[in-house]
Amino acid sequence: MSDPTLLVLSSLAEGDKHGYAMMQDIEAFAGIxxxxxxxxxxxxxxESEGWIRPSGARTRKQPYTITxxxxxxxxxxxxxxxxxxxxxxxxxxxx
Amino acid sequence: xxxxxxxxxxxxPATWRQRYGEEFQAxxxxxxxxxxxxxxxxxxxxxxxxxxxxxxxxxxxxxxxGMLAGWGISFLVAPTYISxxxxxxxxxxxxxxxxxxxxxxxxxxxxGQMQQEILSRTSLSSIIxxxxxxxxxxxxxxxxxxxxxxxxxxxxxxxxxxxxxxxRRAAAFTIAFAYRDRTKxxxxxxxxxxxxxxxxxxxxxxxxxVKRQRTYDQVDRMEARIAVLEKRLGIPPTPPEPIDQLVAxxxxxxxxxxxxxxxxLHRAKPNRYIFASFGFGSGFIAALIVVIFxxxxxxxxxxxxxxx
Lengths: 95, 308
Description:
- The structure holds 2 protein chains of 2 kinds.
- By secondary structure, chain A is mainly alpha-helical.
- Chain A contains 4 helices and 3 strands, in the order αβααββα.
- Chain B folds into 3 domains: 1-52; 56-77 and 270-308, no CATH class; 81-204 and 252-259, EIF_2_alpha (Alpha-Beta Plaits), CATH 3.30.70.1130.
């Protein structure tokens, strides 16, 4: 799972975070270090889709929260990934 | 290094910076500076420019990029040089019994006849395989000689008749040959001129033979009449004169080279301006396609605090 938008949604599924916190969280749970350009590219797209939104007062370290639509989208994507992982692993077993 | 990061942030579209600039800068400041992070910033700026700019900006960017790409690609295309020569065929040997208005037509037909012979498979094959020219070596290694001859005949050789207006007793024509080697282009045009001269000579000989045959026939008829008259008058018959003395001396001087083959100094192809223009147009079309098919990005409106 290296799609930055899914990584960001997965990170926000745990709770609201600002950019740097997301970056650290993603590195911790996925082992992927997103660059600032990639992270904010994903944030821009997610916000335009309505899957995340800024939370709290506007500050320099703006936190974001996942919206219900974003949560549904994440669920669907993860279910697809789970299915792919399941089938892929089953097919990898020696005959 | 921080200055470089600030500069790279400035590459993002202004509307985007207005919305995300402050928090983005805070993130960049918190992140450890590294070349991969700067590369990521630059990559992000390019992507953002491609997804968010207005059409005029995008069209300008892609058109200029296409123009530069077209200009660069033109350097990868092998250059072609065109050598050309102008010849003139005069009506000296053309039937004088023909009316003036048709003389030029006769000459044009004559050029056509010669051209047909010169562009024949045998003729072109002999030029291509001439060891001094050795044309289309790479093509001949990969494609049949018939195809190479077709290319030479239909694409690389140009013979155009360009008689001066009002001129009825002479016809000028230009032979041009395009090739990647300027010297070989020049030598090939020279070879084609030689072929024209040979063909002209052959035609002249054929015409002379016809005329000679007519003369023989006339002489035979006159001698027969004289013999009849001599018989009637009781004069002893005179032996006939050797007929070869009646043959007119032949010369092929009616084909002149007005302009000898030129040694081209500048390439005729590729035309870098055409390549650049094509690239510019392609960039513009690409911008149109991007604008039509890109995912509509709704610029997020700054919203201080929205209810969850």
